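=== RUN LOG ===
request id: a7f3
mode: sequence -> structure
chains: 1
length: 120
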Amino acid sequence: MTKETRVLYNRTCPVCRVEIEAYRRRAEAEDLPIRFDALDRAGDWGLTEDQAARRLHVWQDGRVLSGLAAFRALWSAMPHWRWLARVTGWPVIRPLAALGYDRIAAPLLYRAHLGRRRRP
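=== RESULT ===
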């Protein structure tokens, strides 16, 4: 049985799109069991689109993970990125990386998302 990883991301976010597309290309090139879903699939995940737009979500091993845990799950599923999953799990690095994502990156990207939605 192949273990599948699913990624729910904001395709309208330029930063998110570039990063996730790089992961998608790598996953396809290596024939990895990773599927990528846009925000319009948030309901399939038990989330609203707004909840999904606030941070990265990854489904792995029957669980939905978000934030740094989601990134670490995605990286651990990709051979060339496993080193980053390990490094961001180190006791000193993990809380700093989580703080950076939770308090800086995710809120900035979400506010930019809201701004894009308000534009005609």
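=== NOTES ===
The mean pLDDT is 96.
The first helix runs from residue 14 to 29.
=== END ===
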